[in-house]
Design brief:
single chain, alpha+beta, nine-stranded antiparallel beta sheet, 26 strands, globular, Alpha-L-rhamnosidase C-terminal domain-containing protein, 6hp_glycosidase-like_sf, 6-hairpin_glycosidase_sf, Bac_rhamnosid_C
Amino acid sequence: ALAVDALDGAGLALPAVPASATGDDPWHDSSYTPHHGDWRPYVLAPAGHTVRPVSVLKAVARQGRVEGDPRNALQADNRSVRLVGAADRAGSPLLILDFGKEVAGRVTVRGTGTGRLHACFSESRRYLAEAPDDNEGEGRIAPGCDTANIWNGFPGVAYTEDTDSHELTLNTPDRQIRGGFRYLTLFLDGPGQVDIDAVSAEFTAAPLQPRPDAYQGHFLSSDDLLNKIWYAGAYTVQINTAMADTAKSWPYASGEQDHSDTAVPYADPDKEVIYDGGKRDRIVWQGDLAVQAPVTYLTTHDVDAVDNSLSSLAAQQLPDGFMPAESQAGQHNKDELRTYGEYVTWFVDNMYEHWLYTGDRAYLDKWWPALTRAMSWLESVRAQDPQGLIAFGAVGSCGHYGYSDCGHETYVNALYARNLTQMAGLATARGESGTAYADRAAAVKKAVNDQLWDESAGAYRMSREIPDAYPQDANAAAVLTGVADATRAGRSLAYLRAHNWSGLGSLTVGTANASLSPFYAPLPSGFEADARLGTGDTSGLDLIKKFWGWQLAQDPGSTFWEHVQPDGTPNLKQFSSLAHGWASAPTTILTTRVLGVRPTAAGFASYAVVPHTGGLRWAEGTVPTPRGDITASWRNDGHGLRLEVTAHATGRLGIPAAGRVTLDGHVVWSGGRATAKGVTGEGGYVYVDGVAPGHHTMESR
């Protein structure tokens, strides 16, 4: 046995990587090479709903004792490690266990003893609060915890009482779920002792997925880092997927203990929802869902969780059409109902994307009145401006994903223009006229270009009120939503590359202003990466590898962050969410842009496969659809590209042009012109439309 308390109180640091890690594990082998068809080693989700720590990060005696080998806590083998308490928790020994990645659930400690055992949780070592003054003093009150309570221990606010640790009963699952953590710290609240034989957690993420690792969709490429990013994004959304009665109150009341047992209003309690973050806020947000829903469609295909989340939000609509930004769970502030007008646009986008990916006409019809009311509210705001642009400050609903501007902005007006185009398509699908929506979309796009495009800068302004700032979201959104024509799109993306790209990625804005400071925001960074690849600019892959690859090199090393400060620290320090859904956009982008598979009609009644290879040698994947899986793969051997697709619908295939292009062995393009019907060339690509269901091979040489 190892008497850890004899090590001068310094503790025992053990390897964070499990001894069983082999060369078949891309997450622990830096020399791992991707192999065709072998995507399962990248999956971070467990095979079942029990997870265990993989190593002991540290065992520290402090004023108590740690007797026996701390590694005895890793498996149930009737060998234990003993924690012997001190006068109070400030001197308690600490046993810090590492689950190796972000997990979620109810902890169970197997053992015997009389001491009052507490569990603390943290998503990262940085905010694990080992020292007394860490996390605004949390270390002396709840050692090993990061913070989930906005009023206690928020950055700059003293941590005054333990609102984060969970008191455990031995051999019994924790009463409360901790929705996101990598590190578990066990300590005693006062004298006594506990012999710990094993520690495990009931994995409560994705609870209705019997095998969380059994993805229905997948992605694999020749680039190991891009593969990791795809699966980390998928896992981030899974961590945030949980039963609808496991939300947090929002915001917490002063002194409220950590808990995840609040019901999402209007959600079916027997189904899952998708929260914004596992640890916090742990409620359903419109903007986060806009990123998470497509990830879900393309990975687990857990459509019920999307339906339940979106329905719960739709059912909260106010009589005038305003759509609250988030599920109003628990101790919410009624005054918050009318903030974040931006998120009304995301509700419309969510409904459109749901229709596009599922083709569920009954769902669309059910919520069509809510959609039209939301659009009427948005238009009523625009009607207050003689120049035809929305400004949410006029209705007390300004505010964003990360800043506070209330002006007539490029960003929100671009989102509204897209909504109008989407509504035109939805109306047509329902057999109604979409002309009024389409005409209004054209008017809004013209107003944005007339008032907010800066020709001398070659970029879109933040707003009429702040004309000398050119944010990432304004310019990326203008490209994605079709506000920018090809020339403006190229110039605005070039502006961001020249002025916003910095050490870790692309900053929100190059220079601070009254509403927005420079930081790294995953939401608009996803817009920018998507916009770049969508215009054929493969630097979008550079941005993905730079920013999201950097996140994977930090704790928790398996999920993506809420925001990042310019110095590389989380935006809200110990309160930050490090498994945040709106950061998972690369999973969708890699499937829809690099693999190239996208729906072009509701429910994949038609589709397109147009890969942007970006210097990769190959990519392959599966996309689940209501009509059956689409499988696609492409190979670039340096002399040309070979694309293979199997689908159950009619589609469009496109590959970079070369001297000769064939489809299923028949020449369709030669000498710079089409040699078959339905074949066109544009932007360096050759496209074949009307490709029949079945298996097809398109090749360029």
